[in-house]
Amino acid sequence: MNKVILMGRLTRDPEIRYSQGEQSTAIARYTIAVDRRFQRNNSDGQTADFIPCVAFGRSGEFAEKYFHKGIKVVVEGRIQTGSYTNKEGQKVYTTEVIVENQEFAESKNANAGGADSFAPTDRPSPENASIDGFMNIPEGIDEELPFN
């Protein structure tokens, strides 16, 4: 089974191309920086891996329209390896993730205000709580509660 799920931030805006022919297809290429979970004694000091991703069709169009440098995304897909010979005659090996599904990993406002700025708006306000920390339920709502 060849399945990969990654979460990270885009290192730059996606590069978009369209295939040639009658039915042109969007091809979006982008790289995500994925934090390493554990710090090991690595001599290069690198704390993230930079994973190249390729999205085709609607996924490519979505990346073109909504993805930009710095946003946090979740990418699901498969790893594909390949090789080619460069202009100097050297064989170059490639590894990339072929995107099957992609989505945002944080709210739009979280990126603007920092990762810790998310605050739910439907949380009851503290002034509605009684001294013991519980909210008072208004009269007549008893029959609507699922636990009587």
What would your notes on this structure say?
Strands 1-3-4-6-5 form a five-stranded mixed beta barrel. Strand 5 and strand 6 (91-104) form a beta hairpin. The protein has helices at residues 58-66, 108-113, and strands at residues 4-10, 15-18, 26-35, 48-56, 72-85, 91-104. By secondary structure, it is mainly β.
Write the layout of secondary structure elements.
Layout: E1 4-10, E2 15-18, E3 26-35, E4 48-56, H1 58-66, E5 72-85, E6 91-104, H2 108-113
Parallel strand pairs: 4-6
Antiparallel strand pairs: 1-3, 1-5, 2-3, 3-4, 5-6
Give the radius of gyration. 23 Å
What would you call the structural class?
mainly beta
According to DSSP, the number of beta strands is 6
Q: Which spans of ≥5 residues are poorly predicted at pLDDT below 50?
A: 114-123
Please trace the helix and strand order, writing H or E for each element: EEEEHEEH
